[in-house]
Amino acid sequence: MKIAIIGTGNLGCSIAKGLITTNAITSLYLTKRDLKSIQEFDGYKNVYLTSDNKEAVSKSDIIIFAVQPSHLEGILEEIASLLTENHVLISTITGFSIEKIESSVGKDQFVIRAMPNTAIAVGKSVTCLCSNQKGAERIKIAEAIFNRLGTSMVIPEHLMQAATVVCASGIAFWMRLIRATTQAAIQLGFDAKEAQELAMHTCEGAANLLITNGNHPEQEIDKVTTPKGCTIEGLNEMEHKGLSSSLIHGMVASFQKINSIKTEQL
Ligand SMILES: NC(=O)C1=CN([C@@H]2O[C@H](COP(=O)(O)OP(=O)(O)OC[C@H]3O[C@@H](n4cnc5c(N)ncnc54)[C@H](O)[C@@H]3O)[C@@H](O)[C@H]2O)C=CC1
Ligand SMILES: O=C(O)[C@@H]1CCC=N1
Known about the structure:
Blueprint: E1 2-6, H1 10-21, E2 27-31, E3 47-50, H2 53-58, E4 62-65, H3 69-79, E5 88-91, H4 98-105, E6 110-115, E7 125-131, H5 139-148, E8 150-154, H6 160-187, H7 192-213, H8 217-224, H9 230-240, H10 243-265
Parallel strand pairs: 1-2, 1-4, 2-3, 4-5, 5-6, 7-8
Antiparallel strand pairs: 6-7
Helix pairs in contact: 6-7, 6-10
The chain binds 1,4-dihydronicotinamide adenine dinucleotide (NAI) and (2S)-3,4-dihydro-2H-pyrrole-2-carboxylic acid.
């Protein structure tokens, strides 16, 4: 696959790492206005760094956009005349609708929106996908790319903002939970390195139990909570202090922020 990433910042670098380590490319063009911060990719076979978006587009078939929302429209205008019937356009841009992309490139291009997360760098992203009518013919290609880099789910476009909160911002939310459990483990006697190792592997184990067994979290909780034991004591104290409620409130606030940015700035 001849892939270009337009805007190699935090997410673009994560996607590039995932694509390179899984050997998923025939060629990979990485663009950024200032190439200094992406020199780590220089020297990889078939990987090209350029600040020329037009060159990247004309030499690639699959174009992944990973710039800030305010930059996308200008870039689409810049490259629109170079697009052919073969190009598949994949936008990871938060809050930028298919309709708005089509207003720059037309309805006859394959347009796909993808919402991955930074775990794509290690092949563990869950990526939500949707497409325009034409793009439905190429959604399998997008699924193939993102399934190599984790898992994917095709969803209706109206759920893309929610997917951003749950999956993309979700990485930051889970990091905070891991950090908090690490801090607790230090207070309970482990050194910082051991504490983080215990916290992150416990988190991985919990997620894998659900992924492998397909159970509801409460079924797994029931296996751990000895009556009158320490687990239920801790869980109930966390709930008295609002653990579930604060997570839900935080995610709803995040969702409201995306929707307000959409109407104010795009
Ligand atoms: N960071 C994340 O975890 C996720 C981000 N997103 C979305 O991905 C997009 C990028 O996010 P980040 O990587 O965090 O932002 P970022 O600011 O780290 O990266 C954007 C990059 O685009 C480059 N850029 C700006 N104008 C350009 C141009 N004309 N040509 C080429 N490159 C240009 C910038 O130099 C920068 O490196 C955003 O729209 C965000 O909503 C989506 C899912 C997850
Ligand atoms: O925080 C943000 O607005 C972007 C979207 C999802 C991850 N980063």
